Amino acid sequence: MDPEIIEVNCPTCGKTVVWGEQSPYRPFCCKRCQLIDLGEWADEEKRIPSKGDINDLDEWSEEEI
Questions:
Q1: What is the pTM of this model?
Q2: Which of 2, 11, 38, 56 is deepest in the core (most CB within 10 A)?
Q3: Residue of 5, 35, 37 lying closest to 23 (CA atoms)
């Protein structure tokens, strides 16, 4: 039985990438696209949406310990 070949699109440039060991930067097509994506996360151009600006640590205080 031949293994199924899975192809995905690079999230940065859209180029088709084979999902396998022959593509070490998967889901990205190359190191450049991988670094562009990392830079966008580091610059906070991309982020995971939250329910609000308050997180669990906002109510934390050293005095409560």
A1: 0.67
A2: 11
A3: 5
Q: Is residue 12 within 8 Å of 28, Cβ to Cβ?
A: yes
Report residue 45 as tokens.
């151009």
- Rounded CA separation 7/15 (Å): 10
d(CA 40, CA 36): 6
Residue 13 annotated as part of some ligand binding site: yes
What residue type is 49 in one-letter code? P
CB-CB contact of 11 with 22 (8 Å) = no
CB atoms within 10 A of CB 19: 13
Tell me the C-alpha distance between 10 and 23, whole Å: 11
- For the stretch 2-13, pLDDT in tens is 579 999 999 999
> Residue 30 annotated as binding?
no
